[in-house]
C-alpha cells in the first residue's frame, strides 16, 4: 500500500482528463478556458495512457479513481475512460466530478460504462444567480440530470462553493432543497489560488462558521470511517439528504489526506497546492505500468505534511481547473 513518511495511505486517485472547461465560474475560470496556452495542455492523456496510469496506481493499492478536469464530459471518449478505470484490477469505485452540462443526456451511458459515484457542482439553486456565477443558463437541465442519476440509484453528491457576495444568502434555500432531495450536499470552502486573490478576499466564508450554524440548527456530525478523507459530514432527522463540509483551512485538514492527483498531462501532484507536479508522461507513454508504479512510490516519500494555504502560499496552482480540485 502506498504510504508516505507521515503514515498517510493513498487509496484514492483524482485523475484530471482535460484542462478545458466550457463554464466560466467566477472563482475558478472567470474569463473562461484560455486555449493555446501551451501545446502540452491540449494534449491530454489518451485512453491507453489512462489505462497505464490506473493500473500503476491499482498495483499500489489504489481502490478509487475520480475523473475530473476542467470539464471531463468534454472528452468525447469519456465512456471509454470510465470503462478503462473500472476494468483495472483492484479498482472498486469510479467516480466523476462534472459541472453537469451533459449529465442528463450522458448519465445512462456513464453508468453502463461502470460509473459508481457522481459529484455535480451547483453553486446556486436560483437560475439567474447560477448563470451569474457560471456564465451559463443551465440550472434546470442540470437538475434534471441529477433527477435521472437518482432514478438510476447512482450515489450523488452536489458540490457548492459558498461565496459571500454571490450565494451565501441562499444558504437556507440549499438546506430546504436537501430536506427533500436525497443527495449529499458538500459546501466547499473557497480556496485561494494564484488567479483569484482579490476575489478570495471579498468572498471567502470560513467553513467553521458554517459548521457552527449547522450544529446550532440540530445537525449532527456523522462518524465516518478512518479512511473517509477530509470532508466532515452532518445529518439531520428531518432531512432526506446530508451536508458535507470541506474545510481546507481547518486545523488537521491535511492529516486525513488520502488522495493523490494526476494532471491531464501526466504530472503527479502530491498536493493540490504543491509547488509543481512531477512529470511522468514519458513513462506513461511507454505503457510500462510497473516502472510507473516505482516512480510513484518513490515520489510519495517526498510528500509534505501540510499545504501552506493559511500563509497565502498557493504553489503553482493558478486555478483548480488545472488539476480538478
Ligand atoms: N468542472 C468540474 C466541476 O466543476 O465539477 C470539475 C472540475 S472543478 C475544478 C472541481 C471542483 O472544484 C468543483 O466542485 C468546483 O466548484 C471546485 N473549485 C474550483 N475552484 C475552487 C476554489 N478556488 N475553491 C474551492 N473549490 C473550487
Ligand atoms: Fe469549469 Fe469546474 Fe472551474 Fe467551473 S469549477 S470553471 S465548471 S472547471
TrEMBL record:
Binding partners and assembly: Monomer and homodimer.
Name of the protein in its database record: GTP 3',8-cyclase
Pfam families noted in UniProt: Mob_synth_C (PF06463), Radical_SAM (PF04055)
Any GO molecular function: cyclic pyranopterin monophosphate synthase activity
SUPFAM superfamilies assigned to the protein according to its UniProt record, in alphabetical order: Radical SAM enzymes
4Fe-4S found in the keyword field: yes
Similarity comment: family membership: Belongs to the radical SAM superfamily. MoaA family.
Pathway listed: Cofactor biosynthesis; molybdopterin biosynthesis
Swiss-Prot/TrEMBL catalytic activity: GTP + AH2 + S-adenosyl-L-methionine = (8S)-3',8-cyclo-7,8-dihydroguanosine 5'-triphosphate + 5'-deoxyadenosine + L-methionine + A + H(+)
Cofactors named for this entry: [4Fe-4S] cluster
Record: residues binding [4Fe-4S] cluster 2: 254, 257, 271
Function per UniProt: Catalyzes the cyclization of GTP to (8S)-3',8-cyclo-7,8-dihydroguanosine 5'-triphosphate.
Source organism of this protein record: Microbulbifer donghaiensis
CDD domains in alphabetical order: Radical_SAM (cd01335), Twitch_MoaA (cd21117)
EC id: 4.1.99.22
Positions bound to S-adenosyl-L-methionine: 27, 70, 121, 191
Domain Radical SAM core, residue spans: 5-231
